[in-house]
Design brief:
The complex is a heterodimer of chains A (about 1000) and B (about 300). Chain A is built from 9 helices and 65 strands. With about 1000 residues, chain A is mainly beta. Chain A is globular, with a radius of gyration of 34 Å. Chain B has 9 helices and 10 strands. The chains are: A mainly beta (about 1000), B alpha+beta (about 300). Strand 55 of chain A pairs parallel with strand 10 of chain B.
Chain lengths: ~1000, ~300
């Protein structure tokens, strides 16, 4: 309230669906408790609410934030020739191409290509186009450099898959077309860089199975050189005419030793490559159309080097670098074709490509990692002995090692040459170094969030200084006076701006303490780089970040997998900080050893680092048991179906032994199409398990889907922390239905194997979608339903007693959303009030999965316009508030859809009673109301997941959507019926009450006087 | 052949005890009575139930050789407690029927349970004492057993032991493949399970074949109905009015109160003037304008 005279965000003339919210119980209670007059006011108040929960324009950023990232940089091309904007164009592992401001690191423009449109190469052509080659070299695009508009796009078809190479001539003036040369699909394509027109194509598939490694354009000639290998035993060079693609010359030389890795060009006619045994360097020289091969044993060059030799791909003219087990060696190729070892450096050194510097000189950069700092040195290629430039930069430990470096030069104010370096760190962050300082950093690791957990903030310490209170009181008053002015439309434009500022930076929301409403939290994010970030929900700032040491064992490639709450102090361990458990895996296969670490949620310190542990981890189960220090018990299931208990304390083992009889879990074998349920084996069998915290398991049930007709494509369970307020559901005619609420319900969707491909690959008759509700304790199939002519991808959400899933209907050529609600019939008899009074009801009997369930289901399907990337549902503290589905649309936005739209009980002409219940008339499609986009004008590029967390305030749910971007907001599906909005004008309310009191007194005095006068008359 | 079948069905029906569920009975009869041609038109009936009582003689196999090719048998196996050794516990027999899509389905399932041997009884007792599982399994493919894998189901043995051993076997079928088998007892079975030995060591089995339900079709309306449903003309107008209220309620409510006060004052004044009485209290007079006048009249 009080935000008058503001435009509605995303205002359209489209009529929104009109329905009134069912009165939430809270407001009902209040209304009953209050005087009639007040309740009348309340009624007015609540009836004046607008059902859609859109924002006003000036409320953007009040409780939401949006952060834009790009991901780990793969390639970078600087564009600094002309004056004006200095920028760098990068492509990343998240398939993003972006243009960044070199001064501040901000994004000028950015494009997120699809998940399977991997960027292979980028370059700049004609000084104004960014050229990208993606999808294994099959798509070539040009983007306008200043604003990122796409200029043209060409699809390149090849005969077979091969590596993708892109060569943009620097200053080739063959004709007006200025062609770009692309090698992909075993063909060389020449494409005009002006309009993307196809000039010519040279197919190498007809030349035998040659695999081209390098595409070189010697300056000044109109010949393209292609250097490749046939069957890894013969070198081939081709000379191709630039204008028409005609083959001018083909030379080859056989090399029986075979090759390893890539051919690296040294100069225009020299190449170097390793042989298959990785112990011999082969120098290839092309002279007068002849290929000369020269072999040199590495052990002759470098004494005491062993295997694992790799030629580093850095292109340094006349020099190449070789990495062995002992370090990196620079080797110079002399004019006579001799190899001279120039220098050895440490193994962790990272080398950039050579950069043309001045007067034919070339420079390159090396980065060396020291303790808490990095050393950047720039050297000239022809003079390796001394550093041209050496800078030491302090570096945060939590960023890890340097992974990549790109350098660029500029002219200093004193006309000398300076260098700046863009470095990519181990945690995927991007830094610009210049003049020995970090100019800017981007935490682009946050573009690859794997898992999300939340943590409460510490409780506020009591004891605040008086001065602070006075100050804040004064501020508070000032703020409210300003707001009052704003409401009464007395504020000047300056003051309006001040009000806006106060709203946006209300210090309340970014405090590091727990708040009454539970809005302030820490979002703990695990990223693909193995770094853990804690973000404050108030303003999205990074509170701490930790590069997990347990995932950094150098021998194997470890990656984080899952994040679990480890310790949530509630009652008797309040002085402990909460902590989270990170489970990772070292290696690629499922049976590789796992890495565990426990991290303090307040400080980010790694409390316990269980490096690579002996067993593997396939599944992590949070048990609903805690030990005396409030540590949650976890079961880690390994690849051999053994269960490992954590924490490994005798107390935990005791607790688990007591409850082990009632512990069940299941596994989904998607490939085999089998669901299996397990329990813990009671007696220790003859082959004793390795430790007392390891338990043998046994198969209790299995469901085998016939492989010729069904393939598992989606499984969904309920959120373990979901709260359901009531099992009963009041329906029309004062009838009651009992929801079948089981924590052990699993939703499984299968399609016929033919239909598991993309949409359009199967005919409607071939594709069948079958959905199941399975009890995971007994393996009982509670419900099974077939959708004929439908196929995946299926996205589903399971909550309370319902599941909503999204799929494609091939017959209707549209996406559909179906709802399936499951009700317990065994409790349906408890309607009789008399029985309830006498006690003849079974409401208090415990529910067991082993009892035979009597369930009924209700189902309905609706058309839905969008394809969907993720579905989630709001969750609130007590589960009273009605629910909204949160749908991540294909446009990377989050749409909130009232659950009442996907109600299976909607009918064409609802009766009066049903209307009162809030049942909507049946429609065939679900409405998309523009105002109900939670993300309003933002896009969460590359949306992957939506996480909801209940706030302490019952009406409110915190929503965090992540992809390449991050977005956080909080939503109230039934409006904030239990609190006044944050910008509620208390001052005005006080003023009104005061005025009323004064008015009462005045009228009282007046009437007294009148009475007196009357009496005297 | 049909007649034969029918006759057989009737005979088998008559062999059953009378407590058979009527609904099941009807379906069963219908299945049997249907001609194959009609069956072809119906893809699959949702539920085919059959029931048989324990210990029918294993020798009681079909004597009609003419249809033996379309008949299948598969074995129910069971295991006690932790042991993974399954042993035969009973035999299912059913008839294959061609379905509309060229596949085959099973009909007329019947089940014959073997009697528990003495060692099995001992094992069962032990399982009951330790509150352990009684596990059963079926082949996942009826025609070439065991198919890819066995479908397994298990139950705490104490849930099974009531007066007799009351078992419910729900077999979920997809063509000739067994998807899953759900094994349970009748009634509730809550966690602190009491040890109770069954009075008689014979199973009373209830078996049900289950097929998939078809999803309800999406309702398709013509476009105009849909848009009418959503966009009635009350869509925009009340919103404007409401936003007016939303904006100015804090002014309007006190204004209303003041006006109300003033009105009551005004109402009181003529009354007091006429009656000459004090006591024009606000609350009394709010809703009592006509009564007040009446009173004034009476006083006169």
């Amino acid at each position: 309230m009080g935000s008058d005279g503001k435009k509605r965000e995303g205002k359209t003339d489209q009529p929104s669906l009109e329905f009134s919210d069912p009165p939430p119980p809270f407001s009902l209670l209040i209304a009953m408790a209050m005087a009639i007059k007040l309740s009348l006011i309340l009624l007015f108040f609540s009836s004046s609410l607008i059902p859609t929960f859109s924002l006003f324009e000036d409320q953007v950023g009040l409780m939401d934030w949006h952060q834009r990232y790009i991901g780990k940089v793969k390639h970078a091309v600087f564009h600094t020739q002309k004056a004006g904007w200095k920028r760098v164009v990068v492509s990343t592992e998240e398939n993003v191409i972006a243009s960044l401001d070199l001064r501040r690191g901000e994004i000028f423009w950015r494009h997120v290509l699809g998940a399977n449109d991997v960027v292979d190469k980028i370059d700049i052509a004609l000084g104004k186009y960014v050229i990208t080659l993606s999808s294994e070299g099959s798509i070539l695009r040009a983007w306008n450099l200043p604003d990122g508009q796409m200029v043209w796009e060409s699809f390149l078809s090849g005969s077979m898959s091969s590596k993708a190479l892109l060569t943009v001539p620097a200053n080739l003036k063959v004709d007006l077309d200025s062609p770009i040369f692309v090698y992909s699909g075993a063909c060389i394509h020449a494409i005009s860089s002006i309009d993307g027109e196809y000039l010519w194509k040279k197919d190498f598939a007809s030349e035998g199975s040659v695999d081209v490694h390098q595409l070189i354009l010697p300056g000044g000639s109109d010949v393209v050189h292609a250097v490749g290998v046939t069957d890894s035993s013969q070198f081939d060079t081709y000379e191709i005419h630039v204008k028409n693609g005609g083959l001018l010359k083909h030379t080859s030389a056989s090399f029986p030793g075979g090759i390893y890795g890539e051919i690296l060009p040294i100069s225009g006619d020299r190449f170097v490559v390793l042989d298959a045994s990785r112990s011999v360097l082969v120098l290839i020289t092309i002279e007068n159309g002849q290929i000369h091969l020269e072999q040199t044993h590495i052990s002759d060059l470098i004494h005491g080097s062993s295997g694992n030799t790799v030629i580093l791909p850095s292109k340094l003219s006349g020099i190449f670098s070789l990495r062995t087990d002992n370090g990196i060696v620079f080797i110079k190729v002399t004019g006579e074709g001799k190899l001279n070892v120039m220098e050895r450096v440490d193994k962790t050194v990272v080398i950039s490509d050579a950069l043309p510097h001045s007067e034919g000189e070339q420079a390159f950069a090396l980065v060396q990692h020291g303790d808490g700092k990095i050393e950047l040195s720039v050297r000239l290629v022809h003079d390796m002995s001394s550093n041209h430039l050496k800078e030491t930069v302090k570096m945060d430990h939590e960023r890890g090692f340097v992974h990549k470096i790109f350098i660029n030069n500029y002219v200093r104010t004193d006309r000398s040459h300076g260098f700046r370096a863009l470095i990519v760190m181990e945690d995927h962050s991007l830094l610009l170094l210049q003049q020995g300082e970090i100019v800017w950093t981007r935490d682009d690791g946050l573009a690859s969030v794997i898992d999300v957990a939340t943590s409460e903030l510490p409780v506020e310490k009591i004891g605040v200084s008086v001065a602070k209170v006075e100050h804040s009181l004064f501020e508070w008053l000032k703020g409210h006076i300003l707001k009052l002015k704003g409401t009464l439309m007395l504020a000047t434009p300056d003051e309006v701006a001040a009000i806006q500022k106060i709203r946006l930076q209300s210090s309340e929301k970014s405090k590091m303490t727990r708040d009454h409403n539970g809005f302030r939290r820490l979002l703990i994010l695990l990223t693909r780089a193995g770094k853990l970030y804690a973000l404050h929900t108030g303003d999205g700032r990074i509170v701490w970040s930790t590069l997990l040491q347990s995932l950094r064992t150098t021998s194997q490639q470890c990656a984080g997998l899952k994040l679990h709450q480890w310790q949530v102090p509630h009652h008797h361990a309040l002085d402990n900080n909460p902590s989270v458990l990170v489970v990772g895996r070292c290696g690629l296969s499922l049976s590789s050893p796992s890495a565990l670490s426990i991290v303090d949620a307040y400080t980010g310190k790694e409390l316990q680092n269980m490096g690579p542990v002996q067993h593997s981890t396939v599944q992590v189960i949070s048990l609903p048991f805690r030990d005396s220090s409030e540590q949650q018990l976890h079961l880690l299931i390994d690849a051999d179906k053994r269960a490992h208990l954590y924490p490994t304390t005798p107390e935990a083992a005791n607790i688990f032994q007591r409850e082990s009889e009632n512990v069940y879990w299941y596994s989904v074998e998607s490939e085999a199409g089998i669901l299996r349920g397990y329990g813990v084996k009671k007696s220790h069998s003859s082959d004793t398990p390795p430790s007392e915290y390891c338990f043998e398991t046994r198969n209790l049930w299995s469901v085998v889907f016939p492989s010729e007709s069904e393939k598992i494509i989606a499984t969904v369970t309920r959120k373990p922390n979901e709260v359901v307020h009531t099992q009963a559901k009041m329906i029309a005619d004062e009838d009651v239905m009992y929801k079948y609420i089981s924590k052990n319900m699993l939703f499984v969707a299968t399609v016929s194997p033919k239909a598991s491909g993309p949409i359009g690959s199967a005919t409607p008759d071939e594709s069948v979608l079958v959905v199941y509700l399975v009890d995971t304790v007994t393996g009982r199939i509670l419900h099974r339903m077939t959708h004929l002519g439908s196929q995946g991808p299926v996205h589903a959400v399971l909550s309370e007693n319902w599941v909503v899933y999204h799929y494609f209907n091939l017959r209707a050529h549209r996406y559909e959303m179906s709802v399936l609600e499951i009700y317990d019939q065994s409790r349906a008899e408890n309607k009789d009030v008399l029985k309830l009074i006498v006690g003849k009801h079974n409401l208090t009997t415990p529910v067991s999965s082993y009892s035979r369930p009597e369930v009924t289901t209700k189902s309905q399907s609706y058309f839905f316009t969008h394809s969907v990337k993720a579905i989630s549902v709001t969750s609130t503290a007590k589960g009273i508030t009605s629910k909204h589905l949160l749908i991540g649309t294909i446009g990377d936005q989050v749409l909130a859809l009232d659950k009442r739209f996907v109600d299976p009980r909607r009918s064409l002409n609802p009766t009066q009673a049903e209307k009162e219940e809030g049942l909507l008339p049946l429609t065939d499609a679900l409405p998309i109301i523009p105002q109900s986009y939670v993300t309003h004008s933002f896009k969460v590029e590359g949306l992957r997941g939506i996480e909801t967390v209940p706030a302490k305030l019952e009406s409110t749910s915190l929503v965090f959507a992540y992809g390449v971007d991050l977005f956080y907001t909080r939503i109230a599906p039934s409006r904030t019926y239990d609190s006044l909005t944050e910008d509620f004008n208390y001052a005005l309310l006080l003023l009104t009450i005061l005025a009323l009191v004064v008015a009462i007194f005045v009228t009282w005095v007046l009437s007294e006087r009148k009475d007196l006068q009357d009496k005297w008359r | 052949m049909l007649l034969l079948l029918f006759a057989f069905l009737i005979s088998s029906n008559s062999a059953f005890q009378s407590d058979e569920l009527l609904a099941d009975d009807e379906e069963f009869g219908l299945e049997g009575g249907r001609s194959p041609d009609i069956d072809l038109a119906v893809p699959s009936s949702p539920q085919i139930a059959s029931r048989s009582y324990s210990s029918p003689q294993p020798t009681r196999k079909r004597s009609t050789d003419s249809e033996s090719d379309s008949r299948v048998q598969f074995v129910l196996e069971h295991a006690f407690g932790d042991s993974s050794e399954f042993s035969a516990a009973g035999t299912f027999t059913a008839r294959l029927k061609a379905s509309a899509h060229g596949g085959q389905t099973l009909t007329k399932l019947r089940f014959s349970r073997n009697d528990l041997t003495a060692t099995e009884k001992e094992k069962f007792k032990k399982v009951l004492e330790t509150d352990d599982y009684y596990r059963i399994r079926l082949p996942s493919d009826v025609l070439n057993a065991p198919g890819r894998d066995y479908v397994i189901s298990s139950l705490k043995a104490r849930c099974l032991a009531k007066d007799g051993l009351d078992e419910h076997i729900h077999i979920h079928m997809e063509g000739v493949n067994i998807l899953a088998v759900n094994y349970g007892s009748s009634g509730a079975c809550q966690y602190p399970r009491q040890l109770k030995l069954p009075a008689k060591w014979s199973f009373s089995s209830h078996t049900v074949l289950k097929y998939s339900d078809l999803a309800p079709r999406t309702p398709i309306f013509s476009e105009d109905i849909g848009s009418n449903e959503i966009g009635d003309d009350e869509g925009i107008k009340p919103m404007v009015e409401r936003s007016f209220w939303a904006k100015y309620w804090m002014y309007l409510v006190p204004l209303g109160l003041i006006v109300m006060n003033a009105v009551t004052q005004g109402m009181n004044m003529p009354e007091e003037q006429a009656g000459g009485q004090a006591g024009g209290q606000t609350q009394q007079a709010v809703g009592a304008v006509p009564r007040g006048q009446g009173a004034a009249v009476r006083r006169r």
